[in-house]
Structure of ABC transporter substrate-binding protein:
Amino acid sequence: MPYLKHRMRQITAAAVAVMALGAASACDSAADANDTVSTGGTLRVVLPQLPEHLDPQRIAAAMDNNISRLMSRTLTTYKAESGPASSELVPDLATDLGRPSEKNTVWEFKLREGVKWEDGSPVNCSQVKYGVERNFAALFDSGLPYAELMLADNATPYEGPYSGKGLDSVVCEDTRTIKFKLKQPAGDFNYTVALPIFSPAKQGADGDKDAYDKRPLSNGPYRMEPRSGDKGFTLVRNEHWSSSLDSVRKGHPDKIVFVVDSNDPAVTNALIQDQGADRNTIMLQSNVAPNFLQQVINDPKLSQRVATGPSGSVRYFAINTVMVPNLDCRKALAYAFNKRKYRQAMGGSVIGELATSMIPPNLAAHAKFDHYGTLTDSDGDEDKALALIDKARKDGKPCPEKISVSLPENDTIARYVKTMVDAYVRIGIKVELKRLPADQYWGRIADVGHGNHLVYAGWIPDWANGSAVIPPLFDGKLVKPTGEQSGSNYSFLNDSDVNKAIADALAEQDLNRQYKLWGEIDSKLSEMAVTIPVLYPNSIRMYGSNVAGAFIHAQFGAPDLASLGLKDPSIPVDVTSSAS
């Protein structure tokens, strides 16, 4: 998307470097990696925090999904290939991409024969049905909402399989044939079943729900070793996985060690030094630290060890519409936000384009609008913000003079978010930053009772349409009472006009018309100031010299774990490194 200003923006040397770096990492390096990647050895993956969930039905975060794909297969999935191919849907547990009927209200899939769990038992239709049914249990409200939003409910509202009942809209015709009945037509339902919430679950294996969330039963190439502590976990080969029955996951390493380290500068520096265990290490979810960014992208050798590309996501702040119900106050927060300083703290223009919408520009449903002047003055507009605050006060609905902002417990993120403190002080609003445990963050901010005015958030569409952005983030049906989780509707918006517009767009069968409707809703939501989109970020992830197969996967906005391996498997890995 063009970045517009009153005067032409100069393309810096750093920007040129990162564009060249992106082309190499997305294409050439991936091709080279396929020539050099070997089977065996131990890959080391650094995470900023532990995954919040690994039980497939509870997963909502992209990082968790990326890790889960190594253990939990779905009916369909995405190619483990670089570039545009990573957005291409392929069969996974199913033999094809599904067979729709009855005007796209019924979808049928045939399961592959021979796929097994880590205990050697076969994966069958009843387990896929059971997995889908688990989405309706109150325990699993942390997961994505698509099963509840799209599948036809029972005459008596369904409460999940633990009630002893089944969901009538999911039918096993035989042990290998499953049929889904939808509330309304969905021509892209085969993209929906690529999500982990549609993974199978084996009845009885999930008896201890919390333990299963940390160590789910695997039907993929890796199984989890018993976990202890909160510093990481290890995946080893699932002996019952067959590469002949899985065309996507490469299964290159013998072992994958996941290590938690949120000190991005230390991790980046260790990878630059490239010694010991760091030779076999990759940063999965964190970018190159800002203080090393210019060094890395401008060094010919270091830049060859970076996977980079558009993340396909939007970084934003959700405004709590329950705590900030006054539209003028929400607009004031949007006008005053200094997006230029925020991006500068992240590393400058090479880190991504400034955002104006919630639907990212790589989707056909993206609409061009700029209701708060981001593209003409990215420093924000204090005068308009102050005028709106004054108007709210005269109307007898004064804006809060002090607000709290939620963010994960992460020093790097905290440095970015602190830029908004200065911006809001200039309009008379004091900001208190509330750092929450990173491995509990998304669940905590999904509870309407969390008590904060804004929350740090981000979203990668679950498939390439506005239907994977607007409904999960803004459908009022998702908003639950205090103590329960409202899915990913972090603004807790429940607006009747928006709800109707969402329903109308979902029912639209003309795809081009549907794209237009999603863009119109996105524009309306911007005018309602329920979020502050900040950035369409690039992913810039560094790895050691012995790592191969690294590229940014469009579905995860991060290196694809299913493709990674080592050039020389004989190089040993101690689970410690110079960064730890």
About this structure: The chain has three domains: 13-50+224-309+542-566, 56-207, 314-537. Residues 314-537 form a domain with the Dipeptide-binding Protein; domain 3 fold (CATH 3.10.105.10).
